[in-house]
Amino acid sequence: MQQFEAVNTAGRILLGPGPSGVHPRVLRAFSMPTIGHLDPEFLGIMNATKQMLQHVFGTANELTIPISGTGSAGMETALVNFIEPGDRVLICISGLFGQRMADVASRCGAQVDTIEVPWGQSVQPDQVEEALAEAEAKGGRVKLVGIVHAETSTGVLQPVAEVAKIAHAHGALIVVDAVTSLGGAPVDVDANDLDIVYSGTQKCLSCPPGLAPLTVGRRGLDVLRARSTKVQSWYLDLTMLMAYWGAERFYHHTAPVNMIYALHESLRLIVEEGLEARYARHRLHAEALKAGLEGMGLALFAQEGFRAPMLTTVTVPEGIDEVAARKRLLAQYGIEIGGGLGPLKGKIFRIGLMGYSCTKTNVMLILTGLAEALAAQGFNADGRAALEAAAVVYEASA
Ligand SMILES: *Cc1c(COP(=O)(O)O)cnc(C)c1O
Prior knowledge:
Blueprint: E1 13-14, H1 24-30, H2 40-57, E2 63-68, H3 71-80, E3 88-93, H4 96-107, E4 111-116, H5 125-137, E5 142-148, E6 150-151, E7 156-157, H6 160-169, E8 173-177, E9 196-198, E10 211-216, H7 218-225, H8 238-245, H9 257-273, H10 275-295, E11 311-315, H11 322-333, E12 335-336, E13 338-339, E14 348-352, H12 360-375, H13 383-397
Parallel strand pairs: 1-12, 3-4, 3-5, 5-8, 8-9
Antiparallel strand pairs: 2-10, 6-7, 9-10, 11-14, 13-14
């Protein structure tokens, strides 16, 4: 067998749609010695992690745990446990992750109704009201409404609290994808009366990818208990996971011990900073970035009034090779940003300012780097105006 080199990456400045930069304290926690998943010391770490997750989600829900797997495992858990074959669900689609939700729901055997809006726009609460009323008029009760909070494929933040009210008025559960929003914008599960919410560790929680925090409220638990069929997924069956994370500590699967150390430390950092301060930081740098991009002569892509703070989308100017521009940013500056997905391939850049990556230094750096990468292709990008526009935002906040 050939000998391979040890992994020795120099690291990157992660300003894409995730993963985001990871604080050195989180990496240090990750590298602590692995101990047994039923070791009393580890049980203490599990309990503390649960408590801090409840704080960040804004919930008193007892069932608040990290699912072993990335954000998509959270999505699958949030659907497979509450859908039984033949159930009718309504999924709001404004981008790739809404589409994925509809796909997962259909694999759970649901009859899937959808609301689809053009990518870059937000689903409106009226549309949800109409769709639910229409289903009822036809004699079909919708059991669950699914919606993505921050749609990472488009940079749109959707009005989940309003949609939750409408869902409840029609007797439906609300399932919210907060993979990108949690830790960067208020999710406020209890205040917004959200039933089932999941996230991922590598976006605004600024942890390596590998866990999917999830919380389930009373309505969700009632639906889970009333199931007449077994949950199709053994690994993601919450009835068994509850017993593992609960007082019984009933063995189900081996928790990814070191990933939980890392999540524990990233949550400690969030608690230290304070949620309000953290949201304010994400708002400030997002505003500076957006001002800078417009100052450069670029057009923001997401619908005004619905722009997510942690992920900014910007239209690629005519004639610019988007892939080449991103390659140049990576080669010249060590910066990673994202391109468009699906119908937006080649048409937008996606710039994330998430968690540890969300700093003034990174805002000024990406504005400089992007102006240079666009200028290299002959686009008249005004880098100086970009930095000035961002500086105005910072001065106003000082
Ligand atoms: C990243 C993301 C996911 C999927 O998470 P993975 O960790 O890639 O599995 C789901 N929903 C949204 C909104 C995301 O941004």
